[in-house]
Protein 1
Amino acid sequence: MDFENIVIEKDNGLAKVVINRPKKLNALNKATISELHTAFKELNADAEVQVILLTGSGEKAFVAGADISEFAHFSEEEGATLARKGQEILFNFIENLNTPVIALINGFALGGGLELAMACHFRIAAANAKMGLPEVSLGVIPGYGGTQRLSQLIGKGKAMELIMTASMIDAQEAKEYKLVNYVTSSEELHSTAEKLASKIMKNSPVAIGAAISAVNANFKEGVNGYDTEITEFGNCFGTKDFKEGTTAFLEKRKPNFPGA
Ligand code: COA
């Protein structure tokens, strides 16, 4: 994979995707969104990759938002297309991957940056992180799923307040609101994520993918999450991972999941 705006590192089942436009605080331009789509698609299809970590390069920002310079002159139609396409190829795409994606928020996660972190399966923040959806200060609203996912994660009232005031919250506040699961020092951000990833990697990749699908079903219009859970639960019984997991338990040994 050859990219201009992102860097991928792979090691022992773990893939790190680093958004690499530090001079623009890793703002999401069209090219970066497209590269991220390709990278996530390929990493999700790579059987050796069990967990994906997503972060921003430099010490200042995860992602400071969608690239304002690219859409400042858009028409209504172009604006709607920008949001629709972005949601489809990146934000909803990540949320629905069967490989777990953890956001490592290492500084500003604003607008599209916070929306990107919220599309990941969960989030860890460095103590210097600052998060917010400041779009109304630009005369626009969040367009990459932010109005929906912020309400899902922190509740409607607080989401309304943060969006209306365009304010930034710090990492500790974000943890209190359950927007992030952990706050660490900047130095420990990666090692904390790696420890969590190694716990995840001990488990069945197929079952984890099924669990992601079942949890996500709760938030999908017209989908009954309990029904999805029943289907995914049943599907597990046909997998090699299930055979290995149950056999290993009965044989009192650690499982070695084939991921199939
Ligand atoms: N889109 C495009 N460029 C951006 C950007 C964005 N969302 N966020 C930052 N940048 C660029 C700046 O224009 C600047 O570029 P330049 O050096 O060519 O002028 C560079 O990144 C550094 O940003 P700067 O504003 O100088 O850093 P700062 O430390 O003074 O402020 C922020 C940091 C995050 C508070 C500020 O950059 C900001 O408010 N960014 C926009 C946040 C936003 O509204 N996001 C939602 C977009 S929908």
Protein 2
Amino acid sequence: LRRAIEREEIKVLYQPIVRLEDRVVAGFEALARWDHPKLGRLSPVEFISIAEEIGLIVDLGLFVLDRTARQLATWQANASRAQEPLFASVNVSSRQLLRHDLIQDLRGVLGRTTLARGSLRLEITESLVMENPEHAAQMLTRIKELGAGLSLDDFGTGYSSLAYLQRFPFDTIKIDQSFVRTTARGTRPVILRSIIALAHDLGMDVVAEGAETDSDAVELYHLGCEYAQGYAFGEPMSAEAATDLLNDKPAPRPRALKIASE
Ligand code: C2E
Ligand code: MG
Ligand code: MG
């Protein structure tokens, strides 16, 4: 793993995040993969915790951040001015947030690239910010001041304090897939609607994670959720495939959504 970055075995894939209103790709989440010479493609679940343990997460995180920022700058430079600027979000793990390098690294990355303010977003899980809420609050404020955006990842899975949620300067809440999926009885969890309302009351946008089917997407739209990410709109893909997706006309809207919005 220590040599994987220099050997270019770490790949960054991009998964589309779609605006539900018109199904246009609004941004991407960067997701790391390790193309291991013997073991094949490894998921981040298999190597991120190891990178944290051996103190490699800062380097690995910087690599993903830098790669994503450059890619986003290219996409933004090639987009027409009428469009809202595309965003890209990068996952940050606890060791990165606890160390002050993150601020330095972020400042460096933002200095090297020309990006629309707030369009490079850091995704931070609620369990991570709740590990040390006072410290996290300070770090989050500095991240915002530098011009990056902030997403609260996997919302609803950890232990969260509503008092802190109010104080943290997140722009976006990402609702965990477990709240998006239908239950065994075929219904959505009852609190999905409340989570969306809570986020809106706090002035935050909502991204639903794990939208796997078209009916997920249609229902999320009707619940007032702005964005969705999931297999319904595309799996994590290479930068080339993501560029092709951006250059294409938006995918035709399925009948259900058309009827609903017309
Ligand atoms: P995450 O940030 O919550 O990312 C979403 C995960 O859900 C991704 O798994 C994605 O491939 C998966 N996913 C997307 N759409 C669907 C869907 O419709 N259904 C289902 N069942 N799953 C879906 P992935 O890529 O394996 O990443 C797992 C976790 O690893 C991420 O969870 C994130 O916490 C972490 N991770 C990934 N890349 C990085 C990185 O560069 N740095 C750090 N620190 N963590 C990373
Ligand atoms: Mg994430
Ligand atoms: Mg997530």
